[in-house]
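call fold(seq) -> tokens
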Amino acid sequence: MLRPSRPVALAIFLLAAFAFEAVPRAPGTKLVAVSRADLCVTEGAVDELPGGRLSVSLPKMRAYVNQFTPPEVAVHFTYLGATGKEARLGSGELRRQFGLKLRAADACNLVYAMWRIEPDAKLVVSVKSNPGQHSSTECGNRGYRNIKPRRSTPVPVLRPGESHDLQAEMDGEEMKVFADNRLVWAGSLGADALSFDGPVGMRSDNARLQFELRAPQVPARQGRTPGCRTGEAE
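ret:
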């Protein structure tokens, strides 16, 4: 069997990589803007701006939509730079990032799609699973598993003043993440990501942002409210 020459093989690889990066966001579930009133903010603060946009300026922000929806969520955001104060993660690492939550049962069991800003610019998908534990005091920063994608492409470096889009969706164990309407991550999360369920939401660490969060609209007769749990109950 003849093997392609090195230049030909390189060309095939580059074409495949370009084809993956060029995959546009396919039309899917209709997403609607989430108001501040529909958010449960469990840590930090989310402020409402004129026109319905939201903002965060504190070192830590954690929030979720106070209604169960399908596991799909999107955000259009403007990155404004670092917060005045900075807070380290539970591991002691200092990181600047912003991202989305899916199936957020509680602080110990959820799926993350995080756009890391500093020290390294990249998209990281994680499953945090701690069966039987439900509060931050129980699980701390344990139970994280970073998922290796089946396919991925780099995300842009975030610079202050720039606006971008981030969207994540799950179909069973399969997950896709789109940045600026382009597929940047696709892979399988594993069965443990389906062992819990909850609403969608968002998280930020040491990043100032203005944003509009969007989630699927659920008819009132079908909607279930998880309730707003803060502090140790989150």
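Confidence is low (pLDDT under 50) at residues 8-27.
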